[in-house]
């Protein structure tokens, strides 16, 4: 994983940024470019947060969090990757096979299952004006394939279709719907593009006192103050009150945090012997072990033998609670179902994530509860021009993504510069 040399803190910063994920790094870079002294405090011993590349487990880099540059035509990080001539993999991914309970789908069944996925995306991306918000599940039409196919939502949104707001889902901007990979990993790329941003790692913030003229931030290194403080931690961390706010946050901010829980997406990385070529870059396999357990497997990352199983929503939570190895076992079951038991001999190594148990994220990314579509805007509203919130959860059209987090950092930097220019 990408580490970062400990930097000493400025004792008199203009701005303190809490968290060195995509949002915090982006905000700090923009603020520093505008000439503001900016301290970035990060609790973990690495930068990147939920976008971090593991370079030690496999022979190929493995993004434990964000890996795809989604919506490349509207993704500013894709523009940056092009500008530095990073190698990009632009292959389109598509469903190759699906296994439902006790059989692999064939002929018409496979076609109907696949077609229902299109129904899901159509429903999830368009709502009639003036309609009352509901769950995505409630808006999906009946089909014998509805129950299994809608599990795919949980691997996109980190929560099941009956938990999430239709209006919030429909507000997401898919752009051209592309999913690019950047050679070397998305986390490594984001870290590289922000290598000039000093970060104090291993520095957890425990309290923010924002009642006075100059907010104070309490850390084990001491208490720091600055005119503005940017908070980029996940809504999981905010909701669990891992950081104490004094005075308490405004009711609207608290309501927004409650309406934007952190969902769960976990990944299982699987490295195959390169001689095994039965599934390649762009192939996707859906596996429904039973009505509750679902994994979708993507093969051939960067054109290598690296595959990733994606498990989301309640299923991911249950498997994470079941303990280490449970998610990997589901992936192994799926591989045996599709390719026969000899596939086991081709597996060189595996790893799995457990984002719910990570105390610095407490989940993967935010989803909105039904009725909570306006919460992202509410969370993004600054408190008294001193306390600012950024991070993926604050972005109504690009939440749950790395580029959304990065854009939120740019937004918050502009807001701070505007406030400061007003004051001068
Ligand atoms: C499994 C998974 C797959 C994903 N896939 C994709 C994908 O393919 N494409 C995509 O675009 N997005 C994807 N995402 C989402 C994307 O990774 C996130 O939306 C994005 O990285 C969030 O960035 P952020 O800056 O908002 O938050 P974070 O990355 O969470 O940054 C917040 C930082 O705050 C730190 N912190 C927490 N508490 C404290 C504290 N008390 N004091 C100081 N620091 C603290 C954390 O350690 C963290 O570094 C995925 C996420 C996961 C988990």
From TrEMBL:
The name this protein goes by in its record: Tryptophan 2-monooxygenase
Protein family (similarity comment): Belongs to the tryptophan 2-monooxygenase family.
Pathway info: Plant hormone metabolism; auxin biosynthesis
Natural source organism: Cognatiyoonia sediminum
Lipid biosynthesis as UniProt keyword: no
Taxonomy of the source species: Bacteria, Pseudomonadati, Pseudomonadota, Alphaproteobacteria, Rhodobacterales
Highest taxon, organism lineage: Bacteria
Entry keyword ATP-binding: no
Keyword line: Auxin biosynthesis
Molecular function in Gene Ontology: tryptophan 2-monooxygenase activity
Domain Amine oxidase: start-end pairs: 176-417
Record's catalysed reaction(s): L-tryptophan + O2 = indole-3-acetamide + CO2 + H2O
Swiss-Prot/TrEMBL GO biological process terms: auxin biosynthetic process
UniProt-listed Enzyme Commission number(s): 1.13.12.3
């Amino acid at each position: 994983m990408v580490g970062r040399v400990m930097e000493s803190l400025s004792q008199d910063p203009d701005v303190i940024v809490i968290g060195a994920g995509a949002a915090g790094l982006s905000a700090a870079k923009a603020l520093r470019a505008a000439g503001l002294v900016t301290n970035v405090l990060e609790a973990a011993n690495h930068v990147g947060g939920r976008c971090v590349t593991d370079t030690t487990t496999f022979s190929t880099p493995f993004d434990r969090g964000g890996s795809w540059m989604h919506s490349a035509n509207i993704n500013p990080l894709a523009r940056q990757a092009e500008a530095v001539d990073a190698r990009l993999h632009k292959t389109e991914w598509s469903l190759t096979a699906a296994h439902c309970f006790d059989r692999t789908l064939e002929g018409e069944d496979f076609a109907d299952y696949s077609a229902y996925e299109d129904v899901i995306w159509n429903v999830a991306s368009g709502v009639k004006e003036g309609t009352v918000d509901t769950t995505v599940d409630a808006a999906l039409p009946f089909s014998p394939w509805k129950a299994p196919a809608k599990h795919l939502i949980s691997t996109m949104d980190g929560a099941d279709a009956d938990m999430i707001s239709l209006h919030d889902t429909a507000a997401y901007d898919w752009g051209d719907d592309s999913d690019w990979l950047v050679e070397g990993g998305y986390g490594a790329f984001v870290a590289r593009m922000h290598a000039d941003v000093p970060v104090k790692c291993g520095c957890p913030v425990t309290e923010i006192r924002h009642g006075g003229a100059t907010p104070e931030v309490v850390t084990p290194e001491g208490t720091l103050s600055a005119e503005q403080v940017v908070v980029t931690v996940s809504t999981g961390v905010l909701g669990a009150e891992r950081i104490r706010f004094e005075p308490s946050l405004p009711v609207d901010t608290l309501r927004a945090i409650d309406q934007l829980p952190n969902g769960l997406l976990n990944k299982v990385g699987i490295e195959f012997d390169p001689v095994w070529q039965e599934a390649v870059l762009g192939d996707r396999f859906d596996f429904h072990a039973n009505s509750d357990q679902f994994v979708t497997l993507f093969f051939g990352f960067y054109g290598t033998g690296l595959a990733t199983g994606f498990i989301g929503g309640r299923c991911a939570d249950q498997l994470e609670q079941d303990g280490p190895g449970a998610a990997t076992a589901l992936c192994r079951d799926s591989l045996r179902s599709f390719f026969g038991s000899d596939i086991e001999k081709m597996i060189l190594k595996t790893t799995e994530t457990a984002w719910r148990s990570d105390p610095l994220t407490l989940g993967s990314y935010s989803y909105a509860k039904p009725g909570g579509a306006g919460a992202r805007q509410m969370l993004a509203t600054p408190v008294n021009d001193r306390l600012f919130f950024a991070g993926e959860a604050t972005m109504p059209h690009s939440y749950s993504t790395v580029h959304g987090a990065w854009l939120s950092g740019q937004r918050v930097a502009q807001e701070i510069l505007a406030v400061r220019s007003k004051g001068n």
